[in-house]
Design goal:
This protein has 3 domains: 81 residues; 78 residues, Arc Repressor Mutant, subunit A (Orthogonal Bundle), CATH 1.10.10; 78 residues, no CATH class. It is built from 10 helices and 3 strands, in the order αααααβααββααα. It has a 3-stranded antiparallel β-sheet, covered by helices on one side. It is globular, with a radius of gyration of 24 Å.
């Protein structure tokens, strides 16, 4: 590896690990536990993504690629680290119900906003909404999940109101941590795609950032960026839903892709500073 690339990669990895290690320490994950996870991921990725075409991946080759000894590789290949794909699927199903409620006019009131829906009924009910947008998830399970994360309110007259336009767990650390893993992995995978010489078509990866913003401007920008970000995601949701087989079982075509767009807000306190104009006047 070129020395300049290695230095930049090292600096990037150190910066990337900072927020991650802060989370690990907050939840009591030791360095030993982290290194064991890292070893397992090294073996898993080397096994799946770095084999030679036409040849079966071997313990010896994984050992050479990762720098781990053969005994460790053999041991790690036998470990079944918990995979939360089922949990992510649950998030997706609940999220689809919310999205359908937000964008499908059949579930809106006269003002064009998500209506309070009766629990039961063949049309314009919470039951019909869940059956249309969650696939085979039981209605009760979806309702319990949405109530638990405070995305809906169940009323005394057996109707349900939508309280949020997105699946965002409130005060539920386990779910938030799972979403952290899914979203961060998607972002890093996109960066990996764009760094790879094998891909001629880069993925969209952009951000806007300034580093000398007064504190008084933060609240306005936070609200504006959230509103515009949510609006864009709702428009893209409509487009993707038209092509999703779970929402439209009659859609034809081969292959199966998972795709989407993520938007995130970031903010960092760089300390008290004076702008140059103020300094000049004082001088």
């Amino acid at each position: 590896m070129d020395d300049n690339i290695k230095k930049r990669l090292t600096a990037s990895i150190v910066k990337l690990l900072g927020p991650l290690v802060r989370i690990l320490l907050r939840y009591g994950v030791s360095f030993g536990e982290f290194t064991e996870m890292a070893r397992w991921v090294y073996v898993n990725v080397a096994d799946k993504d770095f084999s030679i075409n036409g040849r079966k991946q071997t313990v010896s080759r994984i050992s050479v690629i990762t720098g781990l000894n053969r005994k460790d590789v053999t041991r790690l290949k036998k470990i079944n680290i918990h995979d939360e794909k089922d949990a992510f699927a649950g998030f997706n199903r609940a999220g689809r119900v919310i999205s359908g409620w937000v964008r499908d006019k059949a579930y809106h009131d006269k003002k064009g906003v998500p209506a309070a829906l009766p629990l039961e009924g063949h049309k314009k009910s919470f039951t019909s909404l869940v059956k249309q947008y969650s696939g085979d998830m039981p209605v009760r399970a979806v309702l319990d999940e949405l109530l638990r994360i405070e995305a809906v309110r169940k009323n005394k007259n057996d109707t349900v109101n939508l309280l949020t336009k997105a699946y965002i767990p409130k005060n539920v650390d386990a779910e938030k941590i799972s979403i952290l893993g899914a979203d961060a992995a998607d972002l890093i995978s996109s960066i990996d795609h764009n760094l790879s010489e094998q891909h001629e078509q880069p993925f969209f990866q952009r951000k806007v950032m300034y580093n000398n913003i007064p504190a008084a401007a933060v609240d306005d920008f936070r609200q504006i960026s959230s509103a515009h970000g949510q609006g864009l995601l709702e428009k893209l949701d409509i487009i993707l839903a038209k092509h999703d087989r779970d929402c439209n079982p009659d859609i034809k075509g081969s292959g199966r892709k998972r795709l989407g767009v993520g938007i995130y807000y970031f903010e960092e306190d760089l300390g008290e500073t004076e702008n140059k104009e103020t300094k000049i006047k004082k001088g």
